[in-house]
Structure formats: structure tokens, C-alpha cells
Amino acid sequence: MLKDEKAVVVFSGGQDSTTCLYWAIQQFREVETVTFMYGQRHSLEIECAKSISKELGIKNTVLDMSLLGQLTENALTRSDIDIAQEEGSLPNTFVDGRNHLFLSFAAVMAKQVGARHLVTGVCETDFSGYPDCRDTFVKSLNVTLNLAMDYQFVIHTPLMWLDKAQTWQLADDLNAFDFVRERTLTCYNGVIGDGCGECPACKLRKAGLDRYLSARAEGVRL
Ligand SMILES: [Zn+2]
């Protein structure tokens, strides 16, 4: 059924969204990716998203969301400090509702290109305190988008209930393990693949990878 339809994947070029992209390619007749560009993001991330899409033969659209820079706490309250992300630190410019905004823009684009399926790598299992990554929010937004645009969107969240180790397992199930491991960018220091090994994103990714690899070595499903 889904094989006849088209999907848009919200795509950052990271481990999670690349796993979602492989999942979508297997599920749908046609897939496109949409990548959001905004102030604090390494331009390397955009390049990574573009090159992965190209390599997999997928059309990628980059949407400029740099207006988010005007809504960060720092930009609103402190005009005297640089909003750029410091090397190796978590972004201090998080915008409330960012995922909500991204999914809504992705939906507008999806309808334009004739896709009613949206795929996002949000995850409730380690949602890091972002309420708009939770399952109940995504379901609520799905209803809202359908009403807003009079269109039958279906938002897919293949990673919603997986932990990091299970996400590696899914990539492996999709025959994408090596690609995801070698080509995706998770590291805050902009090091593709296994990363710098020092930043919080690398540590989280490695912990999941190690747990998956030891389970795989023992033949255990997570
Ligand atoms: Zn790193």
C-alpha cells in the first residue's frame, strides 16, 4: 500500500534521520528529504545532508529557517553576546517548539510535492526534555496539519520508542549499518562518522553503538 506513495523525510544528515531515510526508501515508492538551515548549525551538517541525499539518489531541499536566530533566548535578552555555538558545547540557543515548526514547514512542502507521508526521527525514549519530540505531540500535530491543510498527512516516527542501541539495530536490519556509521554526522565538533569521541553527542552515540555491537556479538535482539 505505502509502496505506491511518496514521503518527505526531515533530514539532518545525522544517525537518526539517515536511519529514517533508509527506512522510508524501503517503505515508499518515492522519497524526498528536507533539511532545515538555521543560525547555529554547522554548515558541514547541511553539506552532509546534501551529499548523503545525492548519494542515495534522493532529492533534497534546504529550507532557510535562520529567522529562528531571532527567537533564541540569547538573541531576545542579550544583544551583547554572540549566539554562535561554542565548540564542543551543547547549543545554548535552543528554541521552544522548534520541532513543531520544522514539521509544519515540512508538511507544507510535502503537500506541494504531492507527498502525504512525513517521516521524522524524533524519539520519546531519550527525548532530552523537548516536549515536541513526544509521541502525543506528534499525533496531535498530525490531526492539526490535516485540518489546517485539508489533507490526509501521516507522520511516521520509526524511532519513537527505540533507544540508541536499538536505533543501530534498526540501521543494521535495513542493511545500512556501515553507511550510517561511516557517513553520518552527529558530533558537535563536526567530525563525520565515529566523531571526535569527546563531545556529549559522540559519547551518547558511542554508548549506543557499543551496547548494540555487544548484543550483536552474542546474537541477542535488543
Ligand atoms: Zn564529537
UniProtKB/TrEMBL annotation:
Gene3D superfamilies the record matches: HUPs
* UniProt keyword terms in alphabetical order: ATP-binding, Ligase, Metal-binding, Nucleotide-binding, Queuosine biosynthesis, Zinc
E.C. number(s) listed in UniProt: 6.3.4.20
Entry-linked CDD domains: QueC-like
Broad enzyme group: ligase
Q: In which pathway does it act?
A: Purine metabolism; 7-cyano-7-deazaguanine biosynthesis
Q: How is the cofactor bound?
A: Binds 1 zinc ion per subunit.
Reactions catalysed according to its record: 7-carboxy-7-carbaguanine + NH4(+) + 2 ATP = 7-cyano-7-carbaguanine + 2 AMP + 2 diphosphate + 2 H(+)
Give the molecular function GO annotations: ATP binding; ligase activity, forming carbon-nitrogen bonds; zinc ion binding
Swiss-Prot/TrEMBL cofactor(s): Zn(2+)
Positions contributing to ATP binding: F11, S12, G13, G14, Q15, D16, S17, T18, T19, C20, L21
Q: Where does Zn(2+) bind?
A: C187, C196, C199, C202
**Annotated Pfam families:** QueC
Source organism, top-level taxon? Bacteria
> Which residue stretches, if any, does this entry annotate as coiled coil?
none
An example Gene Ontology biological process: tRNA queuosine(34) biosynthetic process
Q: How does it assemble?
A: Homodimer.
What does this protein's UniProt record list under function?
Catalyzes the ATP-dependent conversion of 7-carboxy-7-deazaguanine (CDG) to 7-cyano-7-deazaguanine (preQ(0)).
Q: Which PANTHER family would you find in this protein's record?
A: 7-CYANO-7-DEAZAGUANINE SYNTHASE (PTHR42914)
Q: Which family does it belong to?
A: Belongs to the QueC family.
Q: What is this protein called?
A: 7-cyano-7-deazaguanine synthase
Which gene is transcribed and translated to give this protein?
Answer: queC
